[in-house]
Write a sequence for this structure.
């Protein structure tokens, strides 16, 4: 887990007390997940349920979680609308988030996501500046002028300035964090804390069991609202 702020001690105590009664299959609010104080509008349409991963390229826990998450997303088909949001680690001009938004705007982020993470976690090469990002893009077959045009575009720069506020609105204080339907928040760290007998290698799958339950709950809520 990569912390952005210290998680409140009161939450940790509550999760520890309730851990004996919580399971990934039947998650409890305040243990494996929490409810957003101010629910956020979901972008998914139709019968899909929105699932957002808040992450950072350099985050070791995000890299560890990625294989299980990627396989889970592929299994969902049309059940969910999945998207990633890169949390800015160094403020409004964070180079990692800037690269993410640029690749997303070019519709290349999904294709190149694993390559960026491999650069950080396999090659141990930090992409910590605009020059690093440009060099990486060119080496990975992206046209230099096209990359720079998008990288410096008004829309990308405006979104970059808004990422920190967005993370705050969703109550994100560590990565990776998952938000389901704009109202349910969970994370491997929360699931591990609430289920301390789960071995580390099983935490990713346990987290996705929690997400499955939250997606199902969101679907029930939508169906109930539609029936009224």
């Amino acid at each position: 887990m990569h912390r952005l702020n210290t998680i409140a001690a009161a939450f940790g105590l509550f999760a520890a007390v309730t851990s004996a009664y919580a399971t990934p299959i039947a998650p409890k609010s305040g243990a494996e997940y929490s409810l957003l104080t101010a629910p956020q509008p979901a972008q998914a349409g139709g019968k899909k349920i929105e699932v957002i991963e808040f992450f950072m390229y350099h985050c070791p826990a995000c890299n560890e979680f990625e294989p299980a998450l990627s396989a889970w997303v592929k299994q969902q088909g049309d059940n969910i609308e999945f998207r990633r949001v890169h949390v800015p680690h160094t403020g409004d001009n964070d180079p990692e988030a800037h690269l993410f938004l640029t690749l997303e705007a070019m519709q290349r982020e999904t294709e190149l996501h694993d390559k960026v993470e491999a650069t950080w976690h396999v090659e141990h090469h930090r992409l910590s500046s605009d020059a690093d990002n440009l060099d990486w893009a060119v080496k990975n077959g992206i046209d230099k002028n096209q990359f720079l045009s998008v990288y410096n575009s008004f829309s990308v720069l405006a979104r970059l300035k808004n990422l920190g506020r967005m993370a705050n609105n969703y109550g994100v204080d560590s990565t990776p964090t998952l938000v389901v339907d704009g109202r349910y928040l969970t994370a491997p760290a929360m699931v591990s804390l609430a289920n301390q007998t789960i071995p580390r290698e099983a935490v990713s799958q346990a987290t996705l069991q929690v997400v499955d339950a939250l997606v199902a709950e969101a679907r029930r809520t939508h169906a109930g609202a539609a029936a009224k």
About this structure: The chain is about 50% helix and 10% strand. Residues 203-227 form the longest helix (25 residues). The domain at 2-227 is CATH 3.40.30.10 (Glutaredoxin).
